Amino acid sequence: MSFPVIPTRKAGFERLRKFLPNSGHRYAKNRNKDYGPDNRENVSLLSGHIRHRLILEKEILSIVLGHYSQSTAEKFIQELFWRGYFKGFLEQHPTIWTAYRRDVSALTTTLDNKDDLARFYYQAVNGETDISCFNSWAHELVETGYLHNHVRMWFASIWIFTLKLPWQLGADFFYRHLVDGDPASNTLSWRWVGGLHTSGKSYLARPSNIERYTDARFAPYGQLTTNSSPLEEDEYYPISKIPATSKKVNPEVVGLLITEEEGYSEDLFKDLEPTAGIALLTTHARSPQPIGIHAKAFSKYAFHDSISRAVNHFKCTLGGPFELDEWGTVLLKFAREHGVQTIATAYAPVGPVAEKLSDARSYLAKHGIALYERQRAYDLLTWPYAKRGFFSLKKKIPDILKRL
């Protein structure tokens, strides 16, 4: 199994050092170009590491700003903050995720009916449409677990407006296969392309744009729709407060829970001395459909790296990773076996991990076990400015950098 970058913290920093000279003006000039899977020098390829927090946004910002001024690296810095924006937005609009999960489940069931939707859907995901560039990207996604960000926008636009397939099934296709599959970035990016995130504003893939930014590898003239009337929906997604977490934890008898939301536990919990630890994986919970082999392997490989470093740092036993549908009973068993009163873990933003923890929390509380979640300073500083459009956060980037 090969990955764009090996999913370890060490390999991530090696890639960052190699990419560093390209993170300034060259990134701003070339970032939108897709040269194909054999040439990715114009992008960092660190999205999977950032998603699993093998490397922290704060660390990347520190290294880049140690090499370039903020103005020179502006585009790269903004790209990092887009992920924080999407995470914060979904955190404050959690019913978007609830509706998406509901729709994916319902639409997946309809695919069993073998009707026109099923036929066109399987043509799309198998790369068997009449659009050669789209077919190539569908194969690349399944075979590598990665697509260039600009390609993701083209692909989503063609899926929604040319092939006229439900955006939820397209988002699910990405989420099942991307090594950087993220509930917020993925779901909200698809909604943005369709015109649901920014109401009335959709993204149309144009043949001339594809030709220009793929160095003429693809030029789908006459194959794509010229109409991108924004999608519409009847649902309303109210703004919710970002959930507060406990600021203190009883450090006497603590167990550590590692999830795919945090790959650097030895930093986040450096003030604790956990008695033991456990690692629970949720990649299988991304979708009711099968998860791509690259997404599964990347998550598991990253987990083993996280576990290894945590064991070396905390000098404790750490079991897993385990893939389980229900977490409460296994966490209770873990707590009782190790005499643990509190289980500490990284705060889980909206997504499968948060769903598992929500169910486990009430179950553990009934048995006298506390579940403590700790948030990163980067999230606490960034998310409050993600209530609406990205511009509100963009204005605050200089201040956030100073406070970090």
- Find the count of extended strands (DSSP E, 2+ residues): 5
CATH superfamily of the largest domain: HUPs
> In CATH, what is the class of the largest domain?
Alpha Beta
Question: Numbering strands along the chain, what is their spatial order in the largest sheet?
Answer: 3-2-1-4-5
The radius of gyration over CA amounts to 21 Å
In terms of DSSP E residues, the strand content is 5-15%
Which term fits the overall shape?
globular
Number of domains: 3
Helicity level, as a percent range?
40-55%
Number of helices: 18
Mean pLDDT: 95
Straight-line N-to-C gap: 37 Å
Order of helices and strands: HHHHHHHHHHHHEHEHEHEHEHH
State the low-pLDDT regions, or none.
Answer: none
Describe the structure.
The chain is α/β, with parallel strands linked by helices and about 400 residues long. It folds into three domains: about 10-90 and about 380-404, Serine Threonine Protein Phosphatase 5, Tetratricopeptide repeat, CATH 1.25.40; about 95-215, DNA Cyclobutane Dipyrimidine Photolyase, subunit A, domain 3; about 255-375, HUPs (Rossmann fold). It is about 50% helix and about 5% strand. The chain has 18 helices and five strands. Strands 3-2-1-4-5 form a five-stranded parallel β-sheet, with helices on both faces. Helix 5 packs across helix 6 (about 95-110). The longest helix is centred in the C-terminal third of the chain and has 22 residues, at about 295-315. The protein is globular. The model has no long low-confidence stretch (mean pLDDT about 95).
